[in-house]
Specification:
Blueprint lengths: L9 E4 L7 H20 L6 E9 L4 E9 L5 H19 L4 E6 L2 E8 L1 E2 L2 E2 L2 H22 L2
Antiparallel strand pairs: 1-4, 2-3, 3-5, 4-5, 6-7
Helix pairs in contact: 1-2
Length: 145
């Protein structure tokens, strides 16, 4: 039987913030709700969702990734990811990059936006997301060998 552990967590975020936090947070909310449902609907091998949302007149993009350990039920995964979404809102509103980790799930976001420090390049974001997805699949194949 699986066990949902949400009593401990970690969070990391970039200190750069977007210029329109309200619009960013609305787009991020739409993305996280969609990814939460997709990851929770996964099977006993993989509960992973990756996606993006574009917003604003400048067509900025937020990339997101959510994953649960595959032993969790759909409801447990959804509940765990809800915790990551709540922590993202609490710690990282308007931040261009953030990760929240629980023992049984995690959420990650990276935004391609203009920040107070300049533009985050598409190549930086794409490289970051590819490395994360590659690491996840390596971990999954290691655990399922």
């Amino acid at each position: 039987m699986s066990h949902l552990d949400s009593w401990t967590f970690g969070e990391l975020s970039n200190t750069a913030t977007v210029s329109n936090i309200g619009e960013f947070d609305n787009a991020l909310n739409n993305l996280t709700i969609r990814l939460q449902a997709q990851a929770a609907a996964g099977d006993s091998f993989r509960k992973l969702a990756v996606g993006s949302v574009t917003y604003g007149p400048e067509l900025f993009t937020i990339y997101g990734m959510m994953q649960c350990t595959p032993d969790l039920s759909k409801d447990q995964c959804s509940k765990c990811l809800y915790g990551t979404i709540t922590e993202l809102r609490d710690c990282c509103s308007g931040r261009v990059a953030a990760r929240v980790f629980f023992p049984s799930c995690f959420a990650r976001l990276v935004a391609l936006v203009d920040t107070v420090y300049g533009k985050i390049s598409h190549n930086q974001v794409a490289k970051d997301v590819r490395q994360s997805v590659s690491l996840i699949f390596k971990q999954n194949s290691f655990h399922n060998s």
